[in-house]
Amino acid sequence: MNFKHLRTSITLVTSLLIFLLFISFVLITFNMNKVLIRGTISTIHKEITTKVLVKLDVYLDTPYTVNNLTDAFLRINPDHMQNLDLLRKYLYKQLSIFKTVNLIAFGTENGNYVEAQRLDDGRIRTGLIKYNNLELWKTNTAGQKLLLEKIVSKYDPRLRPWYINSKDKKIPAWSAIYFYSSNNSPAISANQPYFHNSSNLDGVITTSITLDDISNFLAELALENNSSVLILEPSGLAIATSKGISLLDDMNRRVTGANLKNTLFSTISRTFQLSIENNYTNIISDFSMVINNTKYLIRSTPYYGPYGLRWSVLVIIPEEDYMSALYRAGTMGIVFFIIFLFIALISSYFIAGQTSKPIVKLSNLVSQISWLENVNYKWNIPNRILERNDEIGTLAKTFSGMETRLNSTILNLRESKKEYKDLVENINSIIMRVKPNGLITYCNPFGLDFYGYTKEELIGSTVQETVLRTKNPDDINILERIFIKDKKYWNGINKNITLKGKEVWILWANTMLHDSKGDIIELLSIGQDFTSRKAAELKLNASLEEKNILLKEVHHRVKNNLQIITSLINLQLGDISNRIVQEKLESLQSRIHSMSLVHEMLYSTESFTQIDFYDYLNQIIATISATLNNMENPIKVSLKGDSLYLDIERSTTCGLIVNEIIINAFKHAFDKQKNCRINIELKKDKDGLVSILIQDNGIGVSSLNKSDKTQGMGSLLIDALTDQIGGKFKISKNNGTFISLTFQS
Questions:
Q1: Are 58 and 192 in contact (CB under 8 A)?
Q2: Is the pLDDT of residue 90 over 80?
Q3: For the packed helices 3-76 and 531-573, what is the interaxial angle rounded to 10 degrees?
Q4: Which end of the chain has less Cβ packing within 10 Å, N or C?
Q5: Long-range contacts for 135-144 (Cβ within 8 Å, ≥24 apart)?
Q6: Are 104 and 115 in contact (CB under 8 A)?
Q7: How far apart, in whole angstroms, are the C-alpha atoms of residue 432 and residue 425?
Q8: Alpha-carbon gap, residue 343 to 515, rounded angstroms
Q9: CATH homologous superfamily of 427-529
Q10: β strands within 401-550, DSSP E
């Protein structure tokens, strides 16, 4: 053997091994990352879709909340039917509070009409029918008219789409998309018929949002990367997009999603409409498209909104946003590999030179020794090589010592072969060897008995004809996918079929067997029966999903039932002339509403056990202010503090206590004074002690306690609720009334 050739061979082989190891590592890592990224995209897809649907549900519920408050205002103040100017000021205040709605209006059966509308620049103007013309006024913050901006001639609310829709249905319902008469913007209205003292319709309350506002709402959602959202009607007309695309053509007419001036949305809409054959679908569907050399993943989800809305929500994710980082990492890896390979070549060449010389010499001495499997074969190594004191002598002595061990090893190998055969033949697992084309070359007795085949029936046939007899292409092609991956080890579960047609699930541990050239020749598989565990897993997953849906539905139904009770109280208020009874019913109505808010927030969030108490108080304050505030001398209520999450029991109890305190302050704390204020502060210390501090600048009240025989229903309720949460309630007079409620969270 030539010294230079050996040195070169060692260098090349070492470099090749390094290269193959690197390529294998890169391919395995790349494929694994690719699978993980695609799984991440699928998860993100579901999260974005759920987020959009939940937020959209809450967003579209606001107009009906506004309608209920307007309905309550009209019933509490029935004289406002004759003096719509007071209602105009109230609608102005409502629109100032509820930022997500665009217009609040009330039209009557005799043709009267009053409205408050938010303009594109954020200003609010109000309108009122006068001499059959709709006058639109610039208004100050108190709702007073300042400047006549526009007159809509011969305006009749009874001819508007929203009025006709509600009058025909006689129940709360969404209108079809229509155009505002004042600015010709496309909008959709939540309409509620108003019946005061009889079954005859007195008027219609409507709260509107524009399609542009829905698009702005989608744009403000925190979507992942370049993800986007498109909402379509069943007819294919566009409702909203998260990219601010115009929903009208040059003639100011609504367009379908397929005709939007955006290549991405129009192409996806056209494909989606063709797939459902222009009919609304209630099936969640996933599909992908390549547009301008970019692959997009799309999920279509049906949206069933409150009171009859039926839309399709399409969430669109560009796959490239998640794959680009993987491609950049691959490029950097190649650069570093080239540098590493160059260093490895130099190092290998130097090391090979130091080790190859003595090997060549020994190779020349033992070149006549050939491999034989005969036991007790003698290697006749010359003594002159054995007596050397250098590396060659050491290596020769090692070869000589190997002689005895080799003979012993051959005997042990034969014994191990027998033991291995006994193990394979008797193990309680399926052991099978399969060629890349699916041909079965071996199956142990346990496997033959498990599948119900004889040795002659199974060995020599293919897995496609026997254990994979199925019409599902994913099951049929599983063998091909395993060999394509070319991993040394592969573990997985798949469905098999026995000879009698029974479906079974097998957990496989697979090993690739290679020939001397490194090519895959067979797959060695060891399988365990996984059928019972698979069935239990499917049953458990179905049970968990069913319970989550049921719990969410319970909160939704509780919220709806409480709202029904509130509406029934509203109806009863119209028939009661006794002011004391009216006030008691209104207090009861407010308590019920505060409890309803808890279930509404639980339904709108992912948690079923805790809510953000800060947001909860904000909604209670907004509802009380909208219902009880005097427009001429409003009471300002402020809330400060950090977000605080409480369980449903403490949230409901504390909400009722604060509700009682604020209503009491609105009714009794101020005696015709100006600049009335109520300040509320929410605190929580490091030991978990929660403090709710309420301060007003009113006339002040005397201390309330359990021994006070003059306590009203509200005071008794506060005492009982405070004891229920193990809290402490204190009240004092200090430039008004100061109240503190403390308890452990």
A1: no
A2: yes
A3: 20
A4: N
A5: 136/182, 139/92, 141/96, 142/89, 142/631, 142/632, 143/88, 143/89, 143/90, 143/92, 143/93, 143/631, 144/89
A6: yes
A7: 11
A8: 31
A9: PAS domain (3.30.450.20)
A10: 430-434, 440-443, 489-497, 503-514, 520-529
Tokens read off for 127: 């309108």
The dihedral through the CA atoms of 605, 609, 610, 616 has a sign that is positive
Burial readout 486-503 (b: 16 or more C-beta within 10 A, e: otherwise): ebeebeeebbbbebeeee
pLDDT at 1 over 70: no
Closest by CA position to 44, among listed 272, 290, 322: 322
Domain 223-318 matches domain 609-745 at the CATH topology level = no
CA distance 237 to 403: 87
Please give the Cα distance from 11 to 29 (Å, whole number).
27
578 CB-contact burial (10 Å; exposed 0-12 / middle 13-18 / buried 19+): exposed
Q: Is 225 left (phi over 0), alpha (psi -120 to 50) or beta?
A: left
Q: Kindly state the tokens that stand for 725.
A: 């949460």
77-213: in CATH 3.30.450.20: yes
Rounded to whole angstroms, how far apart are CA atoms 6 and 13? 10
Q: Which CATH architecture fits 223-318?
A: 2-Layer Sandwich (3.30)
What DSSP line would sit under 454-470, residue for residue? -HHHHBTBBTTTTTT--
How does pLDDT run across 199-248, given as a tens digit for each residue?
A: 788 899 999 998 888 888 888 876 766 788 999 988 889 999 988 888 88
Could you give the percent of the chain with pLDDT greater than 90? 10
| Mean pLDDT over the full length of the chain | 78
